[in-house]
Write a structure and sequence with these properties.
The protein has 160 residues and is α+β, with helices and mostly antiparallel strands. Helices cover 36% and strands 17% of the residues. The protein has five helices and five strands; from the N terminus they run ββαβββαααα. It has a five-stranded mixed β-sheet, sandwiched between helices.
């Protein structure tokens, strides 16, 4: 059975027909061709598919597209062709190796910095606890979080 689903994805209205059992990650990747979020485990264990759903992080492998009907969805793509401050910090801090977990990490950090612009290391660790990284050891990821927060502070000072 198919349903009409209306989403606001990365600032753009999207309306599609989806099967009732289609996970949000599959709709994003295959229906909307937003392939930034990755499919890792399909059990909410790895966090590679993390997106923002109405401003909160969710594992999109465990949310049905029909459950997200009417919601605001933000993916790692964020509707912009340019790297955002968090993405740049990940590059500068060399916070990725294979890159598989990176989209989910970046989305989780967006949520963290939106709520807490100056997180402690413990708060940063807590924010990414649902994102499994098998390569980096998290040290440079934590460094990237600090860099992104500091870069936001510097850019807000330069616009005042």
């Amino acid at each position: 059975m198919t349903h009409t689903v209306s989403l606001h994805v990365n600032g753009k209205h999207q309306q599609s027909e989806v099967d009732a059992g289609t996970p949000l990650i599959d709709h994003l990747r295959h229906g909307l061709r937003l392939t930034g979020a990755h499919v890792g485990c399909r059990s909410a264990s790895c966090g590679a598919c993390t997106v923002l759903l109405d401003g909160r992080t969710v594992k999109s492998c465990c949310v049905l597209a029909v459950e997200a009907d009417g919601a605001e969805v933000e993916t790692v793509e964020n509707g912009d062709d340019e790297l955002d401050d968090i993405q740049r910090a990940f590059v500068e801090a060399q916070a990725m190796q294979c890159g598989f977990c990176t989209p989910g990490m970046i989305v989780s950090v967006r949520a963290l910095l939106a709520e807490n612009p100056h997180p402690s290391d413990d708060e940063a660790r807590a924010a990414i606890r649902g994102n499994l990284c098998r390569c980096t050891g998290y040290t440079n990821i934590l460094k990237a979080i600090t860099m992104a927060a500091e870069n936001r502070d510097e850019s807000s000072l330069s616009t005042e």
